[in-house]
Amino acid sequence: MSAKIAKHLGRVFLILMLLFFYLPIIYTVVFSFNSSKSLSHFEGFSLQWYDRMIKSHDMLSSVFYTVSIAVCATIISTIVGTITAIGLSKSRKILRTVVKQLDDLPIMNPDIVTAIGLLMFFSAIAVKKGFMTVLLAHVMFCVPYVILSIMPKLRSLDPNLLDAALDLGCTPMQAIVRVIVPQISTGIISGALISFTMSFDDFVISYFVTGNGVNNISIMVYTMAKRINPSINALSTLIIILITAVLILVNIIPVIGDRMMKRRKK
Question: Is residue 50 part of a domain?
Fold first, then answer.
């Protein structure tokens, strides 16, 4: 009897946790279609907040900066992190240990400390804060996550794989691109997705290193938090749909690829 009660309590707890995580998202989506400014009473279906969002220059500008910075930071950090991880896998143990400790520092360091440090650094070298400072800051804290995602994949590879490719006539670059990279592609994709998410979602570091006219979505939401603006719900709904679509594609594409490979083998 106690086992059944524990089983039912576990299910209830799971349901409560799912509601806790997903009810705010559902609430945001529903009230993005509200015909009034009320955030507690749904008075009718309307697309007026989506219309206002599209006509708002500030919102569209924040979306542009958010997406462009996230994409650029993801591409740069993925390339740099992949090259670094591959290089470390063939380096001496002491160098690998030192770099790993340095790599863990931005991950463990509080965002506010990193933000203040970057602000002081850019001020010390007299760099005008704007798009480039935000991009550099995002690359800085995204690279460690890429390295962290790829290193386990590299450790699982046969240590003689690179030497075998070189013995068979590959140049060092061909061996890396055609042999090593395909073997660690899942780690690279995971690192890229984490980088994009971290960059897209960042507020603290972006707030300290940005300049006039360069605001991402999180900064814009923060500045508009003191007044009711349901257009934020519309923008949040579009972001939710975009992220959901990306997650679905990321999970479906490998399955389709595996099925196509099986059909070719038949």
Answer: no
Q: Within a 13 Å sphere around the CA of 23, how many CA atoms are in the beta-carbon half?
A: 6
CA distance 79 to 188: 9
Phi first, then psi, for residue 91 (nearest 5°) are -95, 170
Q: Which of 115-129, 164-178, 243-257 has the highest mean pLDDT?
A: 115-129
Question: Who's near 62: CB < 8 A, 6+ residues apart?
Answer: 215, 216, 217, 219, 220
Cβ–Cβ < 8 Å for 132, 65: no
CATH of the domain at 160: 1.10.3720.10
Q: Give tens-digit pLDDT for 66-116.
A: 889 999 999 999 999 998 888 888 778 788 788 888 878 888 888 888 899
212 class by beta-carbon count within 10 Å (0-12 exposed, 13-18 middle, 19+ buried):
exposed
Half-sphere exposure of residue 175: CA atoms within 13 angstroms, side-chain side: 14
Task: Dump pLDDT digits (tens) for 204-235.
Answer: 899 899 888 788 888 887 877 666 677 888 88
Number of domains in the chain: 1
Comparing CA positions, the residue from 23, 51, 20, 27 lying closest to residue 41 is 27
Indicate yes or no: pTM above 0.85: no
Question: φ and ψ at 45, to 5 degrees?
Answer: -80, 135
